[in-house]
Amino acid sequence: MAGDTAHGGLQLALRSRSMFEALDLGTRLAWREWPGLLRVYAPVALFVALIALASGLLSSWAPWIVVWFCKPWLDRVLLHFYARRAFAQPCTLADVLTGPVLFSPRLWPQLLAARLSPWRAMVQPVMQLEGLRGPALAARKKVLLGGCRGAAAMAQLAWAHLEAWLACALAIAYFWADPFSPMSQLIRWMSSEEGSAPVVLASCQVVAALVLEPLSLAGGFMMYLNRRVTLESWDIEQEVRDAFAA
Q1: How confident is the prediction for the chain on average, in pLDDT?
Q2: Is residue 189 part of a domain?
Q3: Rounded to whole angstroms, what are the CA distances from 109 to 132, 134, 156, 171?
Q4: Which residues are within 8 A (CB) of 177 and not within 5 positions of it... i.e. 6 or more apart?
Q5: CB 211 within 8 Å of CB 169
Q6: Cys-Cys with 84: which of 36, 45, 91, 236 at CB 3.0–4.6 Å?
Q7: Domain tally for the chain?
Q8: What digits encode the pLDDT tens for the residues 219-242?
Q9: Is residue 218, in this structure, part of any structural domain at all?
Q10: How many Cα atoms are found within 13 Å in the side-chain-facing hemisphere of 223?
Q11: Per the domain annotation, does 89 fall within a domain?
Q12: In a domain, 4, yes or no
């Protein structure tokens, strides 16, 4: 990853890499851009978190389901931010709230399709940045995923496991914070439907999902860029700029 440009953004060295090297570059992009990312992503993530936690009044599983379904919606915010910052373009919360990123008549079918995809993070840019639909979208996905479906699916599965482990770690840390709670009661507490357990577990699930999603999407975005560089062997910077200018 090269240094800052004159506009204060990132200048990426677009060259052919292994898919997992591209994934690592994506996480570095997320970490380096985290101050601006928080300003854009945190308000939207907080909105989803509040809805998810409120749904816990209906069922202990409801918060997890809400966040699970809303991830592609959050990914649109993240992808909009990363695509702009990767090519040194500014991005603000107003850009997200006033544009078609979060609100579009054709958005919900796209969100459902993305949610059911085992390689969502990598193919999200095809729908959002390239704007393809129907047979053209299916054909484009087939080309981009050719030979790397396994890597894309493994990356998404790895992030899902990390999310589960982080949620468990947060819940255990909360339990350990009480010096009068013996470890022998941990499993009983976590499986209880009464007391603080449902609220704590739901909160841990929501926090884990919302914290790791920016890293997951950044990795998928860089895998997408890497695949385009490998297939097309040309610099796509100007095309991405034109997509935002349209």
Answers
A1: 81
A2: yes
A3: 13, 11, 21, 34
A4: none
A5: no
A6: 91
A7: 1
A8: 999 999 888 888 876 555 555 555
A9: yes
A10: 31
A11: yes
A12: no
* Domain around 199: 19-245
Higher-confidence residue of 12 and 136: namely 136
Give the model's pLDDT for residue 6.
36
Higher pLDDT, 224 or 88: 224
Please give the pLDDT value at position 202: 84
Tell whether the model's pLDDT for residue 184 goes beyond 80: no
Helix (H, G, I), strand (E, B), or coil: what is residue 16? coil
CA 5 to the chain's CA centroid: 25
pLDDT at 162: 95
Q: Are 92 and 40 in contact (CB under 8 A)?
A: yes
- Residue 146, phi-psi category: left (phi > 0), alpha (psi -120 to 50), beta (remainder): beta
Q: What number of other Cβ atoms are within 10 A of residue 245's Cβ? A: 7
